[in-house]
Predict the structure.
Amino acid sequence: MAQPTPTRTAPSDPRPDDHVIVLFGATGDLARRKLLPGLFHLAHAGLMPEHYRVVGSAPGAHALSDEEFRTHAREAVAEFGRSKPQGEVWEAFEEALSFGAADPEDPQPLLAAVQKAEQALGGRPRRLFHLAVPPVAFSSVVQLLGDTGLAQNARVIVEKPFGTDLPSARALNATIHAVFDESRIFRIDHFLGKESVDNILALRFANGLFEPIWNRDHISHVQIDVPEQISIEGRARFFEGTGTFRDMIATHLFQIMGFVAMEPPTTLDAHALRDEKEKVFQSLRPLDPAHVVRGQYAGYRDEPGVDPHSDTETFVALRVELDNWRWAGVPFFLRSGKSLAQGRHMVTLGFREPALRMFPVDVAQSTGLRSNALVIDFDDPGSIKARFLTKEPGPAMRLEDAEMVFRYAGSYNEEHALEGYERLILDAMLGDQSLFTRSDGIERLWEAATPLLKNPPPVELYAPGSWGPDRIQQLIAPYRWSLPDHH
Ligand code: BG6
């Protein structure tokens, strides 16, 4: 049954209804690194429901006792959490943990654990299922939820990647829609939970300063850049079947592009916001393989678990275009890859040159021309920089780069900051879908990606610690890949 869409304008921190949260994949990497520490941080910040239980789940072969799950959670929080597992808050959190194994042919231990948790809470708590399981397992878990009746009064968080192409995404949507209607499905993309990504909306739509120039008349090109220094970190199995395009571009970078490129929504509620984001995806021109550089770092094929002849890309740079009135003719350059020189999260809006060049151009160029840009760094914590040229003091007219900077660090009490997963799990408990992806948007992105998926250019090798294959310079010419504080 469709539920009303809450708005995101509440000035005070809202508190979710009482919940039983079930973590499928509770013994996996994501639960250990992000979900268990994130849930505990929410408890620490006083943002969990007044009454809640967290039930860990995994296939019977990985079953834990309640006590073992509590130890697992304590170790995960100690290693990866910002709030340490101690004191009264930890004791209450630990007390709320239990475990119930589930296999399609034997869901009984999970059913018993959920029932026990609900009885302990009393009333009719909501259920939230987080599917932190490999994509191949999504369908069977959703069917289990439908068959056992657990799906009643429940919402479901589904991890990325959501499908691997258009047919698989459609099939997955159909499977999930057979059990949950769209208002109860929360397809998570943790980049949309990052504080400084949400701030793109505030920057654009809470100010009169930027929006009038946020278009093709003033912006010549946009760069969305997420280089990573880390390699595949032992995730060979996942990565071989996924690659950087599906892992990073079709998900995180396209979602960021949606926020950067959208028209002003009429309100900030989920419906209006997601409508505008989907319109951006509708206007995305089908990806042209000629405008894509796929790279693979030298040594990738020697990683344990990687096919010695692997054609999987660990790097992608591409040029995409949006066929709409705001952005026609403005190329968007997207880049992400593993084992690169630096780890960054950047959106750079490059502005057009002034109509008349009154200043000696060579002077500006000698500085590297990194100016005339607005740079959004969406690392945690992020910053926003306006880069421009100024006159150097002295008798000659010499130009120098200058910048105006807003930094999150030091500007606010960061205790209130939530990490992507924390923010999004809280939103899912509150039923706010604004920062989650919708079925039509996801399918449209896969549709636009089809020419590339059918005809990928061969991978080009690059040296670990570099910025990717050399050909990326041609891809972006006459512009340049720029990181404002890197030459
Ligand atoms: C994940 C990808 O979704 O995002 C990883 O699977 C990637 O490959 C990670 O490293 C990056 O996230 P963040 O928040 O560390 O930039």
Notes: The longest helix spans residues 243-261.
